Amino acid sequence: MNIKRISNPRIVIIGGGFAGVSLAKVLSKQDVQVVLLDKHNYHNFQPLLYQVSTGGLEPDSIAYPIRKILQNYSNFQFRLANVLEIDPKNNKVITDIGLLKYDYLVIASGSETNYFGNTSIETNSMSMKTIPQALNLRSLILENFEEALLTSDLQERNALMNFVIVGAGPTGVELAGALAEIKKGILPKDYPDLDTRLAQINLVQSGNRILKEMSEEASKKAEAFLEKLGVNVWKNTRVSNYDGKVVTTNTDVVFETATMIWAAGVKGANIKGIEGADLVSRSNRIIVNEFNQLKTYSNIFAIGDVAQIETEATPYGYPMMAQPAIQQGKQLGHNLKRLLEGLPLEPFKYKDKGAMATVGRNKAVVDLPKYKFQGVFAWFVWMFVHLFFLIGFRNRMIVFVNWVYNYIRFDREARLIIRPFKKKLKSDE
Amino acid sequence: MNIKRISNPRIVIIGGGFAGVSLAKVLSKQDVQVVLLDKHNYHNFQPLLYQVSTGGLEPDSIAYPIRKILQNYSNFQFRLANVLEIDPKNNKVITDIGLLKYDYLVIASGSETNYFGNTSIETNSMSMKTIPQALNLRSLILENFEEALLTSDLQERNALMNFVIVGAGPTGVELAGALAEIKKGILPKDYPDLDTRLAQINLVQSGNRILKEMSEEASKKAEAFLEKLGVNVWKNTRVSNYDGKVVTTNTDVVFETATMIWAAGVKGANIKGIEGADLVSRSNRIIVNEFNQLKTYSNIFAIGDVAQIETEATPYGYPMMAQPAIQQGKQLGHNLKRLLEGLPLEPFKYKDKGAMATVGRNKAVVDLPKYKFQGVFAWFVWMFVHLFFLIGFRNRMIVFVNWVYNYIRFDREARLIIRPFKKKLKSDE
């Protein structure tokens, strides 16, 4: 597609996630002016959110100040802003801090939880896509145990100690494993008066295997790991509703629970103004070509979770994960450089580096392009890779110290209700 | 005063701060049943709150799960509860989770910010007594800088970058020093577009010297340190009001500021039901004898900040600080043991271990009973003592790693707005 070459252009990037940050790195030394917008002042390492929820890590150790990333990029500006709308005809972005003009726009706004239109599930379930959400879940889990101690109603106590996780992708599997370890390692010590056998962890999956993006081998092994940890895995079970008390499914399986965690779907975090032929309505993702360029507007690009690169080989785009986002950010950076140099753009080529998930202590599954393995070694690989992709030396150190400590002591000391979720205190209590 | 000796008594402790926890340790192996109540599920190391506010530390590293402290105390129960009222005539505590009977009651509810009845200051100023408050202040400081970038109104920008700290006790002094270091080390790198000279840190003190609980030598040196860091120290200046925009004082000094931090007073966090002759109305502290026992009720004790041990030598009680709280908790523990053994109680004797405050990198003042010193060595002593008093090996490790990192890199990477204070997002965004 034709695209105008502009010298020293103003590029606006929406979103400082994996895609936006990886693009920023490439553009840092180019003859372009960049404005990076994000509604948070930090980059968030989503793959470790479940450890924040389960008291294994501090939120601050998986977040990194965006301004710190950009400190040495003299051609960058960061603005803490919520983007309200894009006005592509006039090359403008409308935000809660005002209007911004752009020459090229890059949408890297990521993804959000997809409730598939079920407002009852949306209202009553917990999600884990952001740090505040992860902290809310941490508070709720701990508040549930505290409440379970107080009630003499056995049914209520059961519901408080019953956890239902919907969706057995990496997030659901990792969370289920961590909760099972809390049940085994923390509950008996912290709550000697509670019958910990009541604590049930249920992982519910509509398909016929867990971790369906991974190999059959990984799925099987992960399921065996979960069962060894005492997690109830429900396959071929589709959750139909949750009213805050009862989870109903398409089978006769029913759960009475105070806590349903919805990890069963994501959708693009598209922004108002991009619509029609540019959008997949089902998944809310922006359709782009192999240069991450929109159909309708040649100076607008989308990368990462929000972008769906539609080619014959990838009719539904690439998986909404960190790797495609990082690679697309990098590739778009190179293409914008080429554009400025008057060279033709090069199509995005995804390099599948594999996938992995951890189930718990000494238990992980890893699918590399050439090797598949599971168990202790996989677990070390999982930890090494996650430490490596964390941004910042301090964060790596802190996460490492926590992991070593948690491993040696079978402990999770960040089991802190800093801001209660259920019981409302004043904002500063 | 007479007190009934009860075998295997039920002791209720209100508060898991320094006093409550130090008492708990002594009672852990006694023939008593203890219920510890706190509205938080963690013990909070208040002396380091200012580092949470200024992005130097994670909140989770200065908090410690109370249940973890009590794990090995088989005679203890913890309940997460807000105490609403004490009914001393019927030996009952009324909480938001129900009624509790006690044989002996220990009030260790600590202290809260004292606004001396000025509701305008209470509404508009920030405080730093709890972790959520410290996090609110962290968010506000960072939001101010983000906003300052956006406004073209110079007066508004000045107000956003002007910080007024009222009260030059250790909290005020340490916060002022940390803000000055942010101005010097972080602002120019993170906000190259802002004229950092606009950032003013004002420390306002009604008396004629700062750190008035410490030696003259410490006061002088701390003031010199602050001035070197560029903090404006205003002595003999009493703040009279703050409407959210302008701080007025008893002199002609006036500050236009978006951020006033009130560290000028604390009062006892007394609980409804303890009143009259048992209470100092001015400071809201509970009057106790040298056995930490109330005048009116011989089976109720108060320890720590909320307790005022009235003797001839201490007409206003001991300072509201960690050391008297820890020592009173310990002493009351021994006295309760003696009581159960039929021995007479022993009066509390305060062992003054000195006081210290840090102003910033390589700068602290220490008053020990026999030595007074300031500077680099004092700074190392300050760090060592604070690490030592932190509860938990993990917390000490994490704080230590952060300190080493921050020292070497002149950095504070927890400058994260996890939950905005000004701009209201949804609770989970």
TrEMBL record, chains A, B:
InterPro entries: FAD/NAD-bd_sf (IPR036188), FAD/NAD-binding_dom (IPR023753), NDH-2 (IPR045024), NDH2-like_C (IPR054585). It catalyses: a quinone + NADH + H(+) = a quinol + NAD(+). The chain crosses the membrane at residues 376-393. Residues 353-408 form the External alternative NADH-ubiquinone oxidoreductase-like C-terminal domain. Its EC number is 1.6.5.9. SUPFAM superfamilies: FAD/NAD(P)-binding domain (SSF51905). Residues 10-329 form the FAD/NAD(P)-binding domain. Signal peptide: none annotated. Keywords: FAD, Flavoprotein, Membrane, NAD, Oxidoreductase, Transit peptide, Transmembrane, Transmembrane helix. It holds the Pfam family Pyr_redox_2. GO terms for molecular function: NADH dehydrogenase (quinone) (non-electrogenic) activity. Belongs to the NADH dehydrogenase family. This is NADH:ubiquinone reductase (non-electrogenic).
